[in-house]
Write the structure tokens for this entry.
Amino acid sequence: QKEVEQNSGPLSVPEGAIASLNCTYSDRVSQSFFWYRQYSGKSPELIMSIYSNGDKEDGRFTAQLNKASQYVSLLIRDSQPSDSATYLCAVDNQGGKLIFGQGTELSVKP
Amino acid sequence: DADVTQTPRNRITKTGKRIMLECSQTKGHDRMYWYRQDPGLGLRLIYYSFDVKDINKGEISDGYSVSRQAQAKFSLSLESAIPNQTALYFCATSDPDRGYGYTFGSGTRLTVV
């Protein structure tokens, strides 16, 4: 089992819809969780972090964490074509270094 | 200027050559990392350093070495490049004020022929 798993996609949603990106992790001691956005040919950019169970909202983005289920998700409301990118889930298992999922490719269609 | 700068941006080298990728940061962070990214394999950790005197191997350190010359500088070397080291390489720092989330450099696209 991979330590951090994401569906590779592509996930296609129409403009204005909610995009839901999911991630599971295997190490129960993990404490910090991050979502990165990576445009093609560019470096990953940190968009959300979450540390406690529940929801955390920042503009159109909501991160959700359920430690009991070892599950973290990212919701993007009112999706725009400019949101089309690969979204990387990353987990810090207290070793001070991040383990990344393979990423989910999101395509927002006008 | 970018917070994390990588040089070169692109490099083509021949099998067996030694090559160094350089990374510098202006953020004053202690922690620095080198990752490589391959299609279908995601980002994999090569080496990391929590301060100037601390160097640690990541999951794929074979064939690589690093040097932490100063808090701001962390270099990655390929002692004898081989074609399967062709990849996109990223340097990153982690910010204690952002829960140790990373800031990445722009990347170095390395091709070994």
Q: What stands out?
A: Chain B has no helices and eleven strands. Chain B touches chain A at residues 31, 33, 35, 40-45, 48, 50, 58, 90, 94, 98-107 (CB under 8 Å). Residues 83 and 112 of chain B are 5 Å apart (CA to CA).
